UniProtKB/TrEMBL annotation:
Belongs to the binding-protein-dependent transport system permease family. InterPro entries: ABC_transporter_permease (IPR051393), MetI-like (IPR000515), MetI-like_sf (IPR035906). It is found in: Cell membrane. Residues 80-295 form the ABC transmembrane type-1 domain. This is Carbohydrate ABC transporter membrane protein 1, CUT1 family. Signal peptide: none annotated.
Length: 312
């Protein structure tokens, strides 16, 4: 008699006890996900069709007017452009720096543990604390300009936060300082999973250090880099706290650092138009979801397919 296919055998092997165990373990997570992700998104989409002040039952139905206003508002389009720039600059600036630091720290260097901690510390500092500190240091009479003047470079002193030509670059410097540690730790973890035998074999064959990194380390680090890039893209699209703390609700727009999230708060909650704010939240969610699905489909697909193939 021919044996049943493995998949059919596995399905027959799942009894009520295992099903109950799966339900018990996954049930709370599903309830939390539906209650704190799916339900709020649906409610935001519902309130987005109303002109609503945030209390009581919404009655002023405006159909798609909120969404039309969002897509036609130059302030929102400018904020969307800023988010796009932050996404690109985060990948271009933080990625190479983090890879370089990870390659350095992956070697036997004196004080390696201390350096790792110092690089990672900014990541665990609360955004409010980091934003407040940088806003004080980057003011026209702040510590940065004070240091420049004390060493004879006063001609380089600028209004780093209010100057539209410099504000976005100041934001990128802060974001790099804040989140570079996460990327470095992630890349270091990926490098630890690369077998040392490959580098040793390459050295025996006469490959230099940089040839080994370019031909072996970086290709094998590809899945980790792609995961980091995905997290960086989504984080840049949803950027809010640092911008709001440093530039506030009014200066961000004039300084050229507004984002979709700050636009949502300013035009929604602060303006008392919660229906419009919910509509902006839905637009932000849809944009992030589309980018995530496209990235998953065209970039992460081979990584996930490889994992599924190995699992079989």
């Amino acid at each position: 008699m021919q044996a049943p296919p493995p998949s059919r055998a596995r399905r027959r092997g799942i009894g009520w006890a295992q099903r109950l165990e799966i339900t018990a373990l996954s049930g709370p997570a599903i309830v939390m996900f539906v209650g704190f992700v799916i339900f709020p998104v649906l409610m935001a989409a519902y309130y987005g069709f109303y002109r609503w002040k945030g209390f009581g039952v919404p009655t002023n139905f405006v159909n798609f007017d909120n969404y039309k206003t969002i897509l036609q508002d130059s302030d929102f389009l400018e904020a969307l452009w800023h988010n796009g720039l932050i996404v690109v600059l985060s990948l271009v600036i933080q990625g190479p720096i983090a890879i370089g630091l990870a390659l350095l720290l992956n070697q036997r260097v004196r004080g390696q543990s201390v350096i790792r901690v110092l690089i990672f510390v900014p990541f665990v500092i609360a955004e409010v604390i980091a934003g407040t500190g940088w806003s004080l240091m980057l003011q026209a009479n702040g510590a940065v300009n004070g240091v420049l003047r004390s060493i004879g470079l006063g001609f380089l002193a600028e209004d780093w936060l209010a100057n539209p030509k410099l504000a976005l670059w100041s934001l990128m410097a802060i974001l790099t300082w804040k989140y570079i540690g996460f990327a470095v730790i992630l890349f270091l973890a990926g490098m630890q999973n690369i077998p040392e035998e490959l580098s040793e074999a390459a050295a025996v064959d006469g490959a230099s250090y940089w040839q080994t990194q370019r031909r072996i380390t970086l290709p094998l680090l590809g899945p980790t880099i792609r995961i980091w890039a995905f997290l960086s893209i989504i984080g840049a699209l949803q950027l809010f706290d640092l911008v709001y703390v440093i530039w506030g609700q009014y200066v961000a727009g004039t300084a050229g650092t507004s984002t979709m999230a700050t636009y949502m708060v300013v035009e929604g909650r602060n303006a008392g138009n919660y229906g419009y704010g919910n509509a902006v939240a839905v637009v932000l969610f849809v944009i992030s979801l589309i980018i995530a699905l496209v990235y998953q489909r065209f970039v992460l697909r081979r990584d996930t397919e490889g994992a599924l193939t190995e699992g079989r």
